[in-house]
Amino acid sequence: MDTLFSLLNKRNCIHPFSWLMGVIFLSILIALVWSGINSKENEPLHLVVYAFSTQEEVLNQGIFPVFKQAWEEDTGKQVVIEGVFGPSGTLAGQILLGAQADIAIFSNQRYIEWLKFNKCVDKDTNQVMIASSPLVILTRPGNPKGISDFKDLAQPGIQLLHADPGSSGAGEWSLLAEYGSAYMETGDHQLAESQLKDIWHNVRLIGSSARTSLTLFELGTGDALITYEQDALLAQERGAAIDINLPQPTILTRHYAVIVNDNVSYVERPLAEAFLAFIQGNEGQQILHQYYFRTATSEGDFLSALVQPFTEEDLGGWAQAYNKIIENSWKTEIEPGLDLEPATSFLVRGE
């Protein structure tokens, strides 16, 4: 009687030696795949966070290290966190062009809507408000120009440094403050637009972001600068020679974070979700407050009380405010006629 192998041979089937080699090859392949899986599991996860310029200290020094330690203790898995910082408009543009941000933190929610419109973020994804900060006016020590609120910035002879509304969320918020402060006091849109234009007659230099503008101001550029209270207090803490003036009324800026769905894999999603949950939780909010942000759980104490604060909602929401104040007023009527000077001219004159 023929054996099985002899029958297979008679039918031109594979030689027994070939079968053995196949089994060995398959075993090696399975071992390599399994080794690769284990190796991947042991590799650290990466989280890339894109955030607007004034977030650099609180994230790098506060949020990132504390979250990293908590994550690794809870999961036993290592994580590497990378922060990329710049103007909100620039960061949003980079993400649209393919930058691999897992989390985006913007100075306002308009940039998240932009990512949703371009399908980098799912339209049903919820953005979360993580903190807020009122806008303040920085002046030279002793406030020699006597500036206390936004209408004072329209005085003749003021040299105003301004964040660029074309790239910076701080620049956009400042336009809303300059317009909205007059509107909240009078209810008159024409007076509000007139104040906005009068203030911009005194703008002599614009910086690409809130942080760049603050650096230029610290170097001696201009008489006044509108910026976030949070960043101004950080500068004062490190010894900057500035006066901080809290206008009444002023706008309360609100900052948002979102997961960039296009860039987050199935494996990375729990990490991204845990990061957002940490920022919203008590520990994350306490860290934000230590860096002078106003949070839902930390109003009062060492931060000045706000008198007559308003938000973009009081101006009809971001969409309406953006179209009316930024698109129709600033971009169409104000920007084309700007008479700006290079930063070096201020520094040479010592202004």
Would you kindly provide a written description of the structure presented here, covering whatever features stand out?
The chain is an alpha/beta fold. It folds into two domains: 124 residues, D-Maltodextrin-Binding Protein, domain 2 (3-Layer(aba) Sandwich); 160 residues, D-Maltodextrin-Binding Protein, domain 2 (3-Layer(aba) Sandwich), CATH 3.40.190.10. The chain has 13 helices and ten strands. Strands 1, 2, 3, 4, 5, 6, 7, 8, 9 and 10 form a ten-stranded mixed beta sheet that branches. β1, α3 and β2 form a beta-alpha-beta unit. α4 packs parallel to α5, α6 packs across α7 and α6 crosses α12. The longest helix is centred in the N-terminal third of the chain and has 27 residues. The N terminus is likely disordered.
Name some characteristics of this structure.
47% helix; D-Maltodextrin-Binding Protein, domain 2; 10-stranded mixed β-sheet; 17% strand; alpha/beta; elongated; 351 residues
Short description:
With 351 residues, the protein is α/β, with parallel strands linked by helices. It contains 13 helices and 10 strands. Strands 1, 2, 3, 4, 5, 6, 7, 8, 9 and 10 form a 10-stranded mixed beta sheet that branches.
Taking the sheet with the most strands, its summary is: 10 strands, mixed
CATH superfamily membership of the largest domain: Periplasmic binding protein-like II
Query: Helix count, per DSSP?
Result: 13
Q: Remind me, CATH topology of the largest domain?
A: D-Maltodextrin-Binding Protein, domain 2
Shape: elongated
- Determine the fraction of residues in helical runs and give it as a percent range: 40-55%
